[in-house]
Amino acid sequence: MSEQQAEENNPVFNIEKLYVKDLSLEVPHAPQIFLESGDNEIGMQLHNEGEQIGDGFFEVTLTVTVTNKIGDKTVFLAEASQAGIFQIRNVDEEDMPAIIGIACPTILFPYVREVISDVVNRAGFPPVILSPVNFEALFAQRMQEMETQGNA
Predict the structure, then answer these.
(1) Helices marked H in the chain — which ranges?
(2) Which residues pair with 87 in a beta bridge?
(3) What is the CATH code for 12-151?
(4) What is the pTM of this model?
């Protein structure tokens, strides 16, 4: 095998493009909600998906939904989908789910975190700083759930 052939078979993982794919903010009880007092209850949901969009190119989208409530009233609901186009080549097929489910969202999370913080701040609220996420643990949990459902 020539040196050039060896290089062509090396694994490739490149970030081609990062972008905000979707962004929404709702403040359903404005302006009265700004006068409310009470304990804020902030919840966060994550969703990650990936699809092949070309030969060796994949779009991975990480969607974060943040809900802030005081009692049963929604203070705000912010949702951002941060996407990236990744070039992934010469990787074993069985390793692809982990790359799409761990490596790519780990890269995307700081960007979506900043978008959420910024949009919430622009809506007149203190910025929401999302805690770091262990995508490896989430991926392992999801794989275990799928395995359990498959055996049921």
Answers:
(1) 3-8, 96-98, 104-122, 135-151
(2) 14, 57
(3) 3.10.420.10
(4) 0.90
